[in-house]
Amino acid sequence: MMNSENKFLISISFNQRIEGMHLTIVDATFETIYNGDSEHLNLELFQGIYQLKANFIDYYQEYLLLVDSDKNFTFDFNYPSVAPILSFITTHEYFSGNSEYYSHKSTIEGVTDKPNFLVFGAKYDKDLFKEVLPENCLTEYYILDMNNELLFQLNSQNSKFDNDFGWFAFSNKFENGLYFLKWTNNASNRIFPFYIYNDYQTQFFIRYSQNPDFDNSFFFYSSRMEFRQDAEEYLVLDKVLYAYKDYKNYELLTEKDRSIIQQHPYLVTLVLILQLTLKIKEPDYLNDEKLLLPDLNLVTQSKDDLNTDDLLPVISSIMSMYAVRQKNDTLTFKLASLIDRTIDHLNFDIFWNNFSKVDDTAELNDIYTQFLQKSKPYSININDNQIIKLSKVVANMFGKAGKETIRERLNSLMGNLQSEDFEAKINDAIDSIGDISQIANKLNLPPTKVLRNYKTYKDIYNKLK
Amino acid sequence: MEYAIVIGINHYEERPLSGAVADADAFAQFLINKKLVSKSANLKLLKSDEGNSMVLGPEIDKALEEIVKDARSRKTESNRLYFYFSGHGIGNTFMNTALCLRYWNSVYINHCISSLDYTTGMVNKGAFDEILIFLDCCREHDTTIKGNSPIGDWQNKVGIRTPKIFVCNSTIYGKLSYEIAINSDQKRGAFTSFLIESLSGDADLSGSGKVTALDLKKHIEDNFLSYAQRFNKIQQGSVFTDTGGDSIVICGVEKLNTELNYEITFNRNSNVTLRGRDTKVIKSGDVSIGEKWSCKLEQGFNMIIDNNSGEQKLIANYSENTMSYDEF
Fold this sequence. Notes:
The structure holds two protein chains of two kinds.
Chain A: E1 7-14, E2 22-26, E3 32-37, E4 40-46, E5 48-56, E6 59-67, E7 71-75, H1 95-104, E8 117-123, H2 134-138, E9 141-145, E10 150-153, E11 160-162, E12 167-172, E13 177-185, E14 188-196, E15 201-208, E16 218-222, H3 233-245, H4 255-262, H5 265-277, H6 294-300, H7 303-306, H8 315-322, H9 339-343, H10 361-374, H11 386-399, H12 403-414, H13 422-432, H14 436-443, H15 447-452, H16 454-464
Parallel strand pairs in A: 1-7, 8-15
Antiparallel strand pairs in A: 1-4, 2-3, 2-5, 5-6, 8-12, 9-10, 9-13, 11-12, 13-14, 15-16
Chain B: E1 2-8, H1 20-33, E2 43-47, H2 58-73, E3 80-86, E4 89-91, E5 97-100, E6 112-114, H3 115-124, E7 130-136, E8 164-169, E9 179-183, E10 186-189, H4 190-202, E11 210-212, H5 213-229, E12 238-242, E13 249-252, E14 262-265, E15 270-275, E16 281-287, E17 292-295, E18 300-306, E19 312-317, E20 324-327
Parallel strand pairs in B: 1-2, 1-3, 3-7, 7-8, 14-20
Antiparallel strand pairs in B: 4-5, 5-6, 8-12, 9-10, 11-13, 14-17, 15-16, 15-18, 18-19
Helix pairs in contact in B: 4-5
């Protein structure tokens, strides 16, 4: 088509290919002139100012289009995932190359084996947030083993970083098992449990604006033992997580996405967990290779796998347990998931509505200890939904655990390594709770309800005695 | 006759808010200033304060009953009720939000009222012809929290009036609502700020001199996301209408009695150019921090460019008939 006098040829594209991106173009009079799914647009537009809106699952960004000549607009979609930004040319050119490099090479001198653990952090924009220096961010991270012994504090000796380009990396070879990645900044803590498996590389990616963006940080377990610039599975991971938020988003997975899932046992596992949790009759990928995440074992209630020593209670399941108020109560909300354990155990997304993170871990210690100690074994009914079943399995299993086991697990879960009175707190909590069951029985209330409102019901109980 | 129940709660024991009371004040003030509630006694403003124990719940019921009593006596008048809430909220279902009251915390998790039950209660009073509900609160999923129903009879329909209903949620189901810093020491709900600007005239995109419920709905759906983006927030409003709620004429828009309709405050020392929606230069020159440019902008997208850094910013002027402000 020929250009008219007032029209210009405009091409719009993105530095990364994100399948399923939704674009809207609004002209200067607020009229929508384009609305559809596309990664690339060629249009003829009159001279003027336009707004481009780009949507991809939960992410949204706006751009300004100044149309006063034929132009090619190429934008970055500020997407937190890593692989699809491989060709970010404006601010992220450093990201994928360094991720890739350190997924092959340990940042620790003398370690020649290919690393099976990679932490990679980078600013969303290297030119912004000048006060955020990767070198300083490093020392906020600790790696603990399952006994809560400190293995590494990330620092400028055992990690790599570039303050000018705004990234840092840590990679190393670990034995198989459960570990914790802990982040501490003043009074704030975040703890991420992770696993090291045979022939998988565990990857943790975090982006920074002024603060670390934990809500969009994520783990990936790659059977390819590496990060690759052209990998698309990270984008699919985000789509799977989006389906966790609402299962109807599962439909957004394209055929290509599904074939990518099939090649990645971690993604297969996540989808299977989701579908089993939601009681989908014919789950996908049943016959594909899976990664034996303890959560999946819990959902499937495979007794053989339940007794593994390093199995850790699922905090979100524990939280959901509190929601079981009566035997016949059905829990109608879709528990956003077991995946929380992978993302962040200390995020009360489900129970406390995501208003904020846990402020007081000591309080959680108390609640958790009481719960484990004093909840009666729960009978699992055929009518229970998967979440309730799972909660009961976890509760019953850990309810029987000895004091030492609970202490160890709490210690691990809370990650209060530096807390001087941690032992005392745990002991106090364990020793001081003796009457949840009595109160619950007397008042004919579920123990969980008593736990949640302990002071209130204790007062009533005392008056009745 | 017009009535309003306006609620703002900052003072939660856990996770207090900063802007909810200011939002309620601003919304109440807006209703009075625009004479949308003509009798001040008909506006029940319930807000928390450090020294009081508002809002616990019964005050809302009491306020509603007082309003209903008066409204029922006005048999020949058209009665409109505004219900505004700013505070914490929890999305029980798509249609039902638990509005957290003053004592709501991790112990008193159910110290909330059910937006759906209260809406039903207001409808069933049979005293109103139009009910406009504005909820500026989070709606993250949690069906375990139970919002209380009105303490009076709310389930039995009385009278023959079937009100048009307009429900405006600050965020879509399952998502958060945010507070934004409107200046260095004051926070406000992003949605309420946008709402008041919208009702002041920004939502009258067609320049008809009035804002209908449909206008507001369209403006929220089309432009609130962009507004929130200006503050680095992703928040999308959600509007629901029933029984003809779309046709409600919410308010008139007064004609702006100044020549200029846009003020830009600069936070830089640089050389900048302001371009109109046809890309033609409106103004260009050196600016310094704190300097303001007042100008007349056409309705639509304009833009401002920093000629030294190349930074560009879209200036969305939704109405030529309102005074708007921006920073660059």
